[in-house]
Specification:
With 149 residues, the chain is an alpha/beta fold. Helices cover 46% and strands 15% of the residues. It has a four-stranded mixed sheet, with helices on both faces. The model has no long low-confidence stretch (mean pLDDT 88).
């Protein structure tokens, strides 16, 4: 059986850099950012990203300010999905601009760099609308989640 493209998508060192970017992005906000990578989905990518968002319990944040970057490696597709709290306050074209930055890197196989920049953009926007205060806690794991099915 060939190795999963999910495991080959990023090196361990690249994953650590992305997790570090998530921690940096979340350092000044109560918002939560996750990256989820899987091989393929038979569903519409946005529909499935919403399911993954729920599966990862990202819809349980106190302020509805979770952001998921979902990637289907074999499908060459990704989605940025923001919860209701963040979607209510970001500029209308924000997610499109973030998508374009990630996509420009992905086209040149700079997957780690695209994810790092997308995470940091999301974090900067979250910080504007959901600044960190002493009562905040990191509600969700910063680790990259994966599914090989």
């Amino acid at each position: 059986m060939p190795s999963s493209k999910v495991e080959d998508f990023l090196t361990a060192a690249e994953e650590k850099e992305i997790v570090a970017a998530i921690r940096k992005a979340e350092g000044n906000t109560s918002g939560e950012i996750r990256v989820h990578i899987e091989r393929h989905t038979d569903k519409d990518a946005m529909t499935h990203a919403k399911e993954v968002f729920h599966w990862l319990k990202m819809d349980n944040t106190k302020l509805g300010n979770g952001v998921l970057i979902y990637i289907a490696v074999d499908d060459r597709n990704f989605v940025i999905y923001g919860d209701h709290g963040i979607n209510a306050v970001v500029p209308e074209n924000f997610w499109n601009r973030t998508r374009d930055v990630i996509q420009a890197h992905f086209k040149h196989k700079r997957f780690k760099q695209g994810l790092v920049e997308g995470v940091l953009m999301a974090g900067a926007e979250l910080e504007k609308h959901f600044p960190w205060d002493n009562g905040n806690s990191n509600e969700l794991s910063d680790e990259i989640s994966k599914s090989t099915s």
